[in-house]
Amino acid sequence: MSDALEKKKLHATWVGVMVLALLPALLGQRQGKKAASPASAAAMPVPFSVGETLHYQVLWSEFLVHAGTLDFSIPEQRNFFGRLVWHFRANAHTINTTRTIYPLDDQFDSYSDAAELRGIQYELYLNEEGKSENSIYRMTTQSEPAPPDATLVRVLPGTRDPIGLIYALRAVDWQQTPEFRVPAFDGHRAYEIRADVEIPSGHVSVAAGQFEATRIAVHVSERGNLLADTRFWVWLAHNPARTPVLIEAEVPFGTARIELLQLPQH
C-alpha cells in the first residue's frame, strides 16, 4: 500500500475523531476579559470540573496499531467577551511507526457558553507533516462585524464545535434523555448531530480498566443527508463524572478505537 494512501487513511481517522468531537476547525484568541452580564453568569450543572485531564491511546484499524495519543483537558472557566465560558482543549499526536508515515501534532481549543454549552469560539492549531496552519472562528447567530483576529461564522442557535460536543454529551442525563440533537460546526462545514442511547448499560474493557457504561451512538448528517460511512460511539462510564472511557469511530478509510489510559487522580 502506498504511503500516500496510508496518509489519506490516517488523516480520515483524525478528521473522524474530531467530528464528534471530532472534525477539524477553529476559533478564538486570548482577548481582554470583560465582565460577564447577568444573563451569562449562571452555569448549567455539569459532571466535569476545571483541571480535569483525560489521556487516551488511539488504536488504528482492525490490527489495533497504536497510532497516536489524544488528550482532553479543561484549563479554565472564565469570562470571555461578556460570557461565562468553559475552555476545553484537545491535543492529538501520532506516535511510533505511524508518526514516520504521518507526523501530526494538533491542538484544538473550544470556548463554550457555560449556561448552555453552545460554541462561542473554536481554535485549531495544526502541525502536520512539518506544515503549520492556525485558524480562529467566532461563532454567532447574528449579523455583527467580524473581529480583527478571527473569522466570523454565522451558525444555527445551539451549535457545538467538535470538542465542546464531547462535553455536551457528558452533560446529558441519558437515563432521562433518549435522544440529543444539535447542529455542529467543525471549522469547515456545518453538520447535524443526532446522539441516542444504543446500550443503556454495558460492560467495556479499556486500558484504564473495566467499566459499566452507556453506549451513545452519534449520527452525523450534512444538509439532511446521513453520512452512512462515518459513525461514532461514545461509552460514558457510570460514575459521577460520566467519563468517556471509549470512543469508537468508523470512517471511509478505516476504524479507530480511542481508549482511556487511566481515570483522573483526585
Model description:
- With 266 residues, this protein is mainly beta.
- The chain contains 3 helices and 13 strands.
- A 13-stranded mixed beta sheet has the order 7-6-5-4-3-2-1-13-12-11-10-9-8.
- The N and C termini lie far apart (45 Å).
Strand and helix map with partners:
Blueprint: H1 3-17, E1 53-60, E2 65-80, E3 83-94, H2 96-101, E4 105-113, E5 119-128, E6 131-140, E7 151-154, H3 162-171, E8 179-185, E9 190-206, E10 209-222, E11 225-237, E12 244-251, E13 254-260
Parallel strand pairs: 6-7
Antiparallel strand pairs: 1-2, 1-13, 2-3, 3-4, 4-5, 5-6, 8-9, 9-10, 10-11, 11-12, 12-13
How many strands, which pairing sense, and closed or not: the largest β-sheet? 13 strands, mixed
**What gross morphology would you assign?**
globular
Strand tally, please?
A: 13
Termini Cα gap: 45 Å
Domain tally: 1
What average pLDDT do the residues reach? Answer: 84
Helix content range: 10-25%
> Which stretches are low in confidence, meaning pLDDT under 50 for 5 or more residues running?
1-40
Helical run tally: 3
Proportion of strand residues: over 45%
Order of helices and strands: HEEEHEEEEHEEEEEE
Class from helix and strand fractions: mainly beta
Strand order of the largest sheet: 7-6-5-4-3-2-1-13-12-11-10-9-8
Rg from C-alpha positions?
Answer: 18 Å
